[in-house]
Hints:
By secondary structure, the protein is α/β, with parallel strands linked by helices. The protein has 8 helices and 15 strands.
Amino acid sequence: MSVSVRIALQKSGRLSEDSYQLFKECGIRFDYGTGKLKSISSNFPAEFLFLRDDDIPGYVEDGVADLGIVGENVAIESGRSVQTIHRLGFSKCRLSIAIPRGNDWSGLSSLNGKNIATSYPNLLGKYLGEQGVTAHIHEISGSVEIAPGIGLAEAICDIVSSGSTLMSNGLQEVETIFRSEAVLIAPPSLIDEKQALVDKLLFRIKAVQVAKNNKYIVLNAPNHALEKITSLLPGMRSPTITPLATKGWSSVYSVLNENEFWENIEAIRAAGAEGILVIPIEKMIY
Length: 286
Ligand code: PRT
Ligand code: ZN
Protein backbone atom coordinates (compact mmCIF):
# COMPACT_ATOMS: atom_id res chain seq x y z
CA MET A 1 0.00 0.00 0.00
CA SER A 2 1.36 3.43 -0.83
CA VAL A 3 2.13 5.82 2.01
CA SER A 4 0.11 8.97 2.66
CA VAL A 5 0.18 11.69 5.33
CA ARG A 6 -2.72 12.23 7.69
CA ILE A 7 -3.35 15.89 8.41
CA ALA A 8 -5.57 17.08 11.27
CA LEU A 9 -7.37 20.38 10.73
CA GLN A 10 -9.86 22.30 12.86
CA LYS A 11 -13.35 21.29 11.79
CA SER A 12 -14.98 24.67 12.17
CA GLY A 13 -13.54 27.68 13.92
CA ARG A 14 -11.09 30.51 13.53
CA LEU A 15 -8.37 28.34 11.94
CA SER A 16 -10.51 26.42 9.48
CA GLU A 17 -10.94 28.73 6.49
CA ASP A 18 -7.27 29.78 6.38
CA SER A 19 -6.14 26.15 6.78
CA TYR A 20 -8.35 24.97 3.90
CA GLN A 21 -7.22 27.94 1.80
CA LEU A 22 -3.55 27.12 2.42
CA PHE A 23 -3.92 23.61 0.99
CA LYS A 24 -5.93 24.96 -1.92
CA GLU A 25 -3.09 27.37 -2.73
CA CYS A 26 -0.66 24.45 -2.47
CA GLY A 27 -2.68 22.73 -5.19
CA ILE A 28 -3.94 19.98 -2.85
CA ARG A 29 -7.61 19.22 -3.45
CA PHE A 30 -9.99 17.69 -0.91
CA ASP A 31 -13.65 18.02 0.10
CA TYR A 32 -14.67 19.54 3.41
CA GLY A 33 -17.76 20.87 5.14
CA THR A 34 -21.26 19.38 5.53
CA GLY A 35 -20.34 17.47 8.66
CA LYS A 36 -17.47 15.55 7.05
CA LEU A 37 -15.00 14.06 9.56
CA LYS A 38 -12.51 12.71 7.03
CA SER A 39 -11.53 13.38 3.45
CA ILE A 40 -8.97 11.97 1.03
CA SER A 41 -7.16 14.28 -1.37
CA SER A 42 -7.80 13.53 -5.02
CA ASN A 43 -4.35 14.69 -6.18
CA PHE A 44 -1.86 14.34 -3.27
CA PRO A 45 -1.18 11.36 -0.97
CA ALA A 46 -2.92 12.98 2.00
CA GLU A 47 -5.89 12.23 4.18
CA PHE A 48 -7.54 15.02 6.19
CA LEU A 49 -9.21 14.66 9.60
CA PHE A 50 -11.56 17.42 10.81
CA LEU A 51 -11.43 17.81 14.61
CA ARG A 52 -11.82 20.18 17.57
CA ASP A 53 -8.58 22.15 17.75
CA ASP A 54 -7.94 21.06 21.38
CA ASP A 55 -7.81 17.40 20.30
CA ILE A 56 -5.26 17.92 17.52
CA PRO A 57 -1.98 17.92 19.56
CA GLY A 58 -2.99 14.63 21.21
CA TYR A 59 -3.81 12.98 17.88
CA VAL A 60 -0.45 14.12 16.50
CA GLU A 61 1.46 12.94 19.57
CA ASP A 62 -0.25 9.54 19.41
CA GLY A 63 0.57 9.17 15.72
CA VAL A 64 -3.09 9.10 14.65
CA ALA A 65 -2.24 12.18 12.58
CA ASP A 66 1.18 12.98 11.05
CA LEU A 67 0.59 16.71 10.88
CA GLY A 68 -1.82 19.19 12.40
CA ILE A 69 -2.64 22.88 12.26
CA VAL A 70 -3.40 24.58 15.58
CA GLY A 71 -2.79 27.88 17.33
CA GLU A 72 0.63 27.76 18.99
CA ASN A 73 -1.17 28.62 22.25
CA VAL A 74 -3.09 25.32 22.02
CA ALA A 75 0.00 23.30 21.02
CA ILE A 76 2.03 24.51 23.99
CA GLU A 77 -0.81 24.52 26.51
CA SER A 78 -1.53 20.88 25.67
CA GLY A 79 1.90 19.84 26.97
CA ARG A 80 1.99 17.14 24.27
CA SER A 81 5.24 15.95 22.66
CA VAL A 82 4.78 17.61 19.32
CA GLN A 83 7.13 19.87 17.42
CA THR A 84 6.32 23.08 15.55
CA ILE A 85 7.71 22.51 12.09
CA HIS A 86 6.46 25.70 10.43
CA ARG A 87 4.78 28.98 11.36
CA LEU A 88 1.85 29.79 9.14
CA GLY A 89 1.31 33.50 9.78
CA PHE A 90 -2.50 33.45 10.22
CA SER A 91 -4.80 33.50 13.29
CA LYS A 92 -2.38 35.81 15.04
CA CYS A 93 -3.36 36.70 18.59
CA ARG A 94 -1.86 37.19 22.03
CA LEU A 95 -2.47 35.69 25.46
CA SER A 96 -2.78 38.55 27.91
CA ILE A 97 -3.57 39.32 31.52
CA ALA A 98 -6.41 41.81 32.01
CA ILE A 99 -7.94 43.47 35.07
CA PRO A 100 -11.10 45.56 35.59
CA ARG A 101 -10.70 48.99 34.01
CA GLY A 102 -9.87 51.60 36.61
CA ASN A 103 -8.23 49.17 39.06
CA ASP A 104 -4.70 50.04 40.15
CA TRP A 105 -1.92 48.27 38.30
CA SER A 106 1.61 48.55 39.59
CA GLY A 107 3.11 45.69 37.64
CA LEU A 108 2.93 41.91 37.87
CA SER A 109 3.70 41.88 41.59
CA SER A 110 0.20 43.26 42.20
CA LEU A 111 -1.07 39.78 41.24
CA ASN A 112 0.64 38.12 44.24
CA GLY A 113 -2.00 36.24 46.25
CA LYS A 114 -4.75 37.14 43.74
CA ASN A 115 -7.08 34.88 41.74
CA ILE A 116 -6.65 34.72 37.97
CA ALA A 117 -9.21 32.96 35.77
CA THR A 118 -7.97 31.38 32.54
CA SER A 119 -8.32 28.51 30.07
CA TYR A 120 -4.51 28.47 29.80
CA PRO A 121 -3.30 27.32 33.25
CA ASN A 122 -0.03 25.84 31.92
CA LEU A 123 1.12 28.86 29.91
CA LEU A 124 0.04 31.22 32.69
CA GLY A 125 1.59 29.12 35.46
CA LYS A 126 4.90 28.94 33.62
CA TYR A 127 4.95 32.69 33.00
CA LEU A 128 4.07 33.61 36.59
CA GLY A 129 6.70 31.16 37.84
CA GLU A 130 9.36 32.78 35.64
CA GLN A 131 8.34 36.21 36.89
CA GLY A 132 8.37 35.13 40.55
CA VAL A 133 4.64 35.79 41.05
CA THR A 134 2.51 33.52 43.24
CA ALA A 135 -1.19 33.69 42.33
CA HIS A 136 -4.14 31.28 42.39
CA ILE A 137 -4.99 30.05 38.91
CA HIS A 138 -8.67 29.18 38.35
CA GLU A 139 -9.06 27.09 35.26
CA ILE A 140 -12.32 27.69 33.42
CA SER A 141 -13.13 26.49 29.95
CA GLY A 142 -14.93 29.48 28.48
CA SER A 143 -16.38 32.98 29.01
CA VAL A 144 -13.29 33.85 31.01
CA GLU A 145 -13.93 37.56 30.66
CA ILE A 146 -16.95 37.50 32.96
CA ALA A 147 -14.93 36.09 35.90
CA PRO A 148 -14.06 39.45 37.56
CA GLY A 149 -17.65 40.69 37.20
CA ILE A 150 -19.07 37.68 39.09
CA GLY A 151 -16.43 37.78 41.82
CA LEU A 152 -14.55 34.63 40.73
CA ALA A 153 -11.21 36.35 40.13
CA GLU A 154 -9.48 39.73 40.30
CA ALA A 155 -7.82 39.21 36.91
CA ILE A 156 -8.10 37.05 33.81
CA CYS A 157 -5.66 35.65 31.28
CA ASP A 158 -7.21 35.11 27.85
CA ILE A 159 -6.67 35.33 24.11
CA VAL A 160 -6.90 38.86 22.74
CA SER A 161 -7.09 39.87 19.13
CA SER A 162 -8.74 43.25 18.52
CA GLY A 163 -9.27 43.91 22.25
CA SER A 164 -12.98 44.58 21.82
CA THR A 165 -14.10 41.65 24.02
CA LEU A 166 -12.03 43.00 26.91
CA MET A 167 -13.32 46.49 26.29
CA SER A 168 -16.99 45.47 26.25
CA ASN A 169 -16.51 43.58 29.52
CA GLY A 170 -14.95 46.56 31.28
CA LEU A 171 -11.44 45.05 31.32
CA GLN A 172 -8.03 46.46 30.42
CA GLU A 173 -5.07 44.51 29.09
CA VAL A 174 -2.05 44.92 31.37
CA GLU A 175 0.48 42.27 30.34
CA THR A 176 1.02 40.11 27.24
CA ILE A 177 2.42 36.73 28.21
CA PHE A 178 2.52 34.93 24.85
CA ARG A 179 2.19 35.79 21.14
CA SER A 180 0.60 33.13 18.97
CA GLU A 181 -0.17 32.26 15.37
CA ALA A 182 -1.27 29.13 13.53
CA VAL A 183 1.49 26.53 13.35
CA LEU A 184 2.06 23.22 11.61
CA ILE A 185 2.83 20.55 14.20
CA ALA A 186 4.28 17.07 13.79
CA PRO A 187 5.33 14.20 16.06
CA PRO A 188 9.01 14.18 17.08
CA SER A 189 9.79 11.84 14.16
CA LEU A 190 8.12 10.25 11.14
CA ILE A 191 9.07 7.30 8.96
CA ASP A 192 11.17 8.35 5.95
CA GLU A 193 8.37 7.92 3.40
CA LYS A 194 6.05 10.20 5.38
CA GLN A 195 8.82 12.71 6.06
CA ALA A 196 9.43 12.92 2.30
CA LEU A 197 5.76 13.84 1.78
CA VAL A 198 5.92 16.41 4.59
CA ASP A 199 9.02 17.95 2.95
CA LYS A 200 7.15 18.13 -0.36
CA LEU A 201 4.25 19.85 1.36
CA LEU A 202 6.55 22.30 3.19
CA PHE A 203 8.21 23.21 -0.10
CA ARG A 204 4.79 24.18 -1.49
CA ILE A 205 3.72 26.05 1.66
CA LYS A 206 6.92 28.12 1.61
CA ALA A 207 6.44 28.97 -2.08
CA VAL A 208 2.92 30.20 -1.34
CA GLN A 209 4.05 32.24 1.68
CA VAL A 210 6.98 33.87 -0.13
CA ALA A 211 4.69 34.76 -3.04
CA LYS A 212 2.23 36.45 -0.66
CA ASN A 213 5.03 38.60 0.73
CA ASN A 214 6.16 39.80 -2.68
CA LYS A 215 4.72 41.70 -5.63
CA TYR A 216 5.68 41.61 -9.28
CA ILE A 217 6.46 45.09 -10.62
CA VAL A 218 6.50 46.30 -14.20
CA LEU A 219 7.41 49.90 -15.01
CA ASN A 220 8.75 52.20 -17.73
CA ALA A 221 11.72 54.47 -17.08
CA PRO A 222 14.05 56.80 -18.96
CA ASN A 223 17.41 55.10 -19.45
CA HIS A 224 19.30 57.70 -17.39
CA ALA A 225 17.21 56.68 -14.33
CA LEU A 226 17.77 52.92 -14.70
CA GLU A 227 20.73 52.67 -12.37
CA LYS A 228 18.90 54.41 -9.54
CA ILE A 229 15.71 52.41 -10.12
CA THR A 230 17.40 49.01 -10.33
CA SER A 231 19.20 49.72 -7.05
CA LEU A 232 15.74 49.98 -5.46
CA LEU A 233 14.49 46.78 -7.14
CA PRO A 234 16.75 43.88 -6.26
CA GLY A 235 14.47 41.25 -7.86
CA MET A 236 15.09 37.54 -7.38
CA ARG A 237 18.52 37.83 -8.97
CA SER A 238 18.42 41.25 -10.67
CA PRO A 239 15.68 43.09 -12.59
CA THR A 240 14.92 42.30 -16.25
CA ILE A 241 15.32 45.36 -18.51
CA THR A 242 14.07 45.53 -22.10
CA PRO A 243 14.15 48.56 -24.45
CA LEU A 244 10.86 50.28 -25.31
CA ALA A 245 9.95 51.34 -28.87
CA THR A 246 10.31 54.95 -27.64
CA LYS A 247 13.99 55.85 -27.86
CA GLY A 248 15.82 56.39 -24.56
CA TRP A 249 13.22 54.44 -22.54
CA SER A 250 13.16 50.92 -21.08
CA SER A 251 10.75 48.59 -19.37
CA VAL A 252 11.82 47.12 -16.03
CA TYR A 253 10.43 43.88 -14.51
CA SER A 254 11.16 42.88 -10.95
CA VAL A 255 9.94 41.56 -7.62
CA LEU A 256 9.48 43.73 -4.56
CA ASN A 257 8.99 42.65 -0.96
CA GLU A 258 5.73 43.75 0.68
CA ASN A 259 7.61 45.21 3.70
CA GLU A 260 9.64 47.58 1.55
CA PHE A 261 6.89 48.21 -0.94
CA TRP A 262 5.60 51.75 -0.23
CA GLU A 263 8.94 53.25 0.67
CA ASN A 264 10.63 51.89 -2.45
CA ILE A 265 7.77 52.61 -4.82
CA GLU A 266 7.79 56.29 -3.84
CA ALA A 267 11.55 56.49 -4.43
CA ILE A 268 11.16 54.67 -7.77
CA ARG A 269 8.52 57.16 -8.91
CA ALA A 270 10.63 60.09 -7.74
CA ALA A 271 13.52 58.67 -9.83
CA GLY A 272 11.40 59.03 -12.99
CA ALA A 273 9.50 55.73 -13.37
CA GLU A 274 6.11 55.83 -15.11
CA GLY A 275 3.26 53.41 -15.76
CA ILE A 276 4.05 51.30 -12.71
CA LEU A 277 2.07 48.03 -12.58
CA VAL A 278 1.95 46.00 -9.37
CA ILE A 279 0.84 42.40 -9.86
CA PRO A 280 0.20 39.71 -7.20
CA ILE A 281 2.36 36.59 -7.43
CA GLU A 282 0.76 33.17 -7.05
CA LYS A 283 3.82 31.03 -6.30
CA MET A 284 7.49 31.91 -5.93
CA ILE A 285 10.23 29.28 -6.06
CA TYR A 286 13.86 30.09 -5.44
O1 PRT B 1 -14.44 24.31 18.45
P1 PRT B 1 -12.96 24.31 18.65
O2 PRT B 1 -12.53 23.77 20.00
O3 PRT B 1 -12.24 23.65 17.49
O4 PRT B 1 -12.49 25.85 18.56
P2 PRT B 1 -12.24 26.93 19.72
O5 PRT B 1 -13.52 27.65 19.95
O6 PRT B 1 -11.53 26.33 20.88
O7 PRT B 1 -11.17 27.86 19.02
P3 PRT B 1 -11.35 29.10 18.04
O8 PRT B 1 -11.81 28.64 16.72
O9 PRT B 1 -12.14 30.19 18.72
O10 PRT B 1 -9.83 29.61 17.98
C1 PRT B 1 -8.84 28.83 17.40
C2 PRT B 1 -7.50 29.55 17.55
O11 PRT B 1 -7.56 30.82 16.89
C3 PRT B 1 -7.08 29.90 18.96
O12 PRT B 1 -6.50 28.80 19.64
C4 PRT B 1 -6.08 31.02 18.74
O13 PRT B 1 -4.82 30.49 18.42
C5 PRT B 1 -6.62 31.71 17.48
N1 PRT B 1 -7.30 33.02 17.73
C6 PRT B 1 -7.05 34.15 17.04
C7 PRT B 1 -8.26 33.28 18.63
C8 PRT B 1 -8.59 34.63 18.49
N2 PRT B 1 -7.83 35.15 17.48
C9 PRT B 1 -9.60 35.22 19.33
N3 PRT B 1 -9.88 36.40 19.19
N4 PRT B 1 -8.88 32.52 19.56
C10 PRT B 1 -9.83 33.05 20.32
N5 PRT B 1 -10.22 34.36 20.26
C11 PRT B 1 -11.31 34.77 21.19
C12 PRT B 1 -10.81 35.02 22.63
O14 PRT B 1 -10.87 33.82 23.37
C13 PRT B 1 -11.79 36.06 23.16
O15 PRT B 1 -12.98 35.46 23.60
O16 PRT B 1 -11.89 35.98 20.80
C14 PRT B 1 -12.09 36.85 21.91
C15 PRT B 1 -11.17 38.02 21.85
O17 PRT B 1 -11.17 38.62 20.58
P4 PRT B 1 -11.10 40.21 20.43
O18 PRT B 1 -10.94 40.45 18.95
O19 PRT B 1 -12.39 40.77 20.95
O20 PRT B 1 -9.90 40.69 21.21
ZN1 ZN C 1 -10.98 24.52 21.11
